[in-house]
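Team,

Forwarding the record for the chain on the shared tracking sheet. I've put the sequence and predicted structure together so nobody has to dig through attachments.
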Amino acid sequence: MIESDDFVQALQDIGFDFFTGVPYSILGGIIAALMERRLYTPAVREDEAVAMAAGAYMAGKVPCVLMQNSGLGTSLNALISLNLLYEQPCLLLISWRGFQGKDAPEHLVMGQTMTQLLETMKIPHRVLSEATLIEDFKWTAQTFMKQRIPVALLLKKGIVKGLRP
């Protein structure tokens, strides 16, 4: 399991300097580390976080949006009509609820279809793992800068340490 503080430092090391999103328990350790560093700006909804990230990018920041995969559905219009259309890149750090059908019933459909949804929107994505963390971050930085569109890293529960053991 990756320590939240180490994960945040790795994101900063590859250039990310603006973080926003909707508070959520699986990403809670990351959010807490970001708040300690005074780097996190909370949003009310995921589409608002995507818009804030676009504004931060236009102001010279390198943005990251943290969300649960249900928030991907909430942010589709902003991602398509703002980020993809106007080449506004951001890292989407998405927790994968409903992975392999193991979760509460309300998370199963998005858990099964999230990668297909990202592929349909032509948003490059990778499933983050502890074993491939360095390669995943290198890929993120290269893809983000080269394509100037949103890029997604998908986090399964237990990859990055949360607030509770």
